Amino acid sequence: MSVLIDNLPLLLRGFWMTLVLSVLGALGAVVLGTLLAALRVSPSAPLRGLGYLYVELLRNTPLTVVFFFMAFGLPQLDLALPNFFLSGLLALVLYTSAFVCEAIRSGINAVPPGQAEAARALGMPFGQVIGQVVLPQAVRTVIPPLGNVWIALVKNSSIASAFAVTELTAVLTRLSNQTAGALVAIGAGVTIGYLIITLPSGYVVSRFERRLAVLR
Amino acid sequence: MRITRYAAALAAAGVVLAGCSSEAGDQAEDSAADASAAVETDVEFEAGTTMAELNEAGTITIGTKFDQPGFGLLNPSQVPEGFDVEIGKLIAAKLGIPEDGVEFVETVSANREAFIQNGQVDLVVATYTINDKRKEVVDFAGPYYSAGQDIMVAAGNPEGIEGPEDLAGKNVCSVEGSTPAENIRTSYPEATLTLFDVYSKCADALANGQVDAVTTDNVILTGLVANGGDAFELVGNPFTEEPYGIGLPKGDTEFRNFINDVLEESYEDGSWADAWDATAGDITGTEAPEPPAVDRY
């Protein structure tokens, strides 16, 4: 236990970095993922193709490869990001947005087509049909899958430790090398750090799920 | 039979890929040949000593690393080369053993003591750091080289980094949790650390200009320089000390003294520096350092 107390500032710094990566990553991924979902259900075939291409490319590529490309590939294309935190964040956003897109699209498909048809019949343009009629209903059904995506995102953020971001897992690596034999205590501390982020979010998700549930 | 065909194709691809992996390995080969010391022809050793036995047999088995560019690396023609290999040949030559009587076998960090104790090798010259714990089970001649933490920079050293003091305000790359990173953190806190999980990423970052320098043991850096084309260079100013010794069976003091004599002689006559210039020095472009004083404990 003393290992944890002695290194509390470092652990807290790592925890904060994991939290920041996850929250910013989630915000970015939800925005981008929603846009992608709109692309994938849009009436224009080229836009649908674009969305399809993006999703299949990103969700079928290992996250480590995405990280690698953002950290070392972009600079070789003269598109270097100012630091490794941003390249890691971008990797998480781009990767996770593909999963967010698919979750939202499944929600959109779960909304009976009659809803969109009725909106169209009233003369609403596509943006309004999606934004005011379909998405509000879709979001209710996608809360549980989005909760899963969020938890995966929090855990995926640990890959940033291998790409020069000192978050919780990087702290685990550092402390386990510094303090021989204290791996159990340090591992437990780091695990608790992750649980502090993921467990309450699981609770929040289930609350939302119950409140927003609609009976059809 | 389709499966067999796929398997064959896979194997072929593997061979091609393996062939690509170490271009740098070959470069030291030509120059290394001239550096070898002349084999002693008329040497007499007191009967019963290890030297007399080896001289009589005309063969010696030396353990070295096969994966460490500049020190011990199996080149594409399956011939080991590097500074450790040259030191091994120097000793063999002084024992009156011709070069074709010198057999190199691969030893890795984990099996060096065992290989010596079991008599599978006569000597180990394999980036082998002398320490008290190892001295309990084997003896060390030397040190013949003092390795240490050094700095690798982009070719031409654009930031003008000559030593760890110059790292202040610079972005320095190393591996998370490693001792070199810890050294920088505690002794040179003004440097900004960028920490990856492996050193190859540090090399990528340095090549891209995302960091100003990479720091770890100079032996590891030598490997990165060797694999980096002409992109990197070594500062060549180690600021920690890791004495490399030659491992031999415990208690063979005569053999140990003999090797220490050979080492001192090679310091004197320049063959030690020649061996450096032909191998690690050729890769990193650094001059032969001052050889460490032999420790006759």
Annotation keywords:
heterodimer; A: 216 residues; mainly alpha; MetI-like fold; B: 297 residues; alpha/beta; D-Maltodextrin-Binding Protein, domain 2; 2 domains; five-stranded mixed β-sheet; three-stranded parallel β-sheet; elongated
Distance between the termini of chain A: 52 Å
User: How big is the Rg of chain A?
Assistant: 20 Å
Helix content of chain B: 25-40%
Helix content of chain A: over 70%
| Helix-strand string of chain B | HHHEEEEHEHEHEEEHEHEHEEHHH
Largest interface: A-B, 18 and 16 residues
Total domain units of chain B: 2
Shape of chain B: elongated
Q: Report Rg of chain B.
A: 21 Å
> Which architecture of the largest domain in chain B per CATH?
3-Layer(aba) Sandwich
Instruction: Describe the sheet with the most strands of chain A.
Output: none
Word description of this protein:
- The complex is a heterodimer of chains A (216) and B (297).
- With 216 residues, chain A is mainly α.
- In chain A, 81% of the residues lie in helices and 0% in strands.
- Chain A has helices at 2-6, 8-40, 45-59, 63-76, 84-110, 113-121, 126-156, 168-178, 183-212.
- Chain A starts with a helix and ends with a helix.
- The model of chain A has no long low-confidence stretch (mean pLDDT 92).
- Chain B has 297 residues and is α/β, with parallel strands linked by helices.
- Chain B folds into 2 domains: 23-147 and 242-284, D-Maltodextrin-Binding Protein, domain 2, CATH 3.40.190.10; 149-234, D-Maltodextrin-Binding Protein, domain 2, CATH 3.40.190.
- Chain B contains 12 helices and 13 strands.
- Chain B has helices at residues 2-20, 27-35, 50-57, 83-94, 112-117, 132-135, 179-187, 199-207, 218-227, 253-269, 271-278, 280-284, and strands at residues 60-64, 67-68, 72-74, 80-81, 102-106, 123-124, 138-147, 149-154, 171-175, 192-196, 213-217, 232-234, 242-249.
- In chain B, helix 4 crosses helix 10 (253-269) and helix 4 packs antiparallel against helix 11.
- The longest helix of chain B has 19 residues, at 2-20.
- The interface between A and B is medium-sized, with 18 and 16 residues.
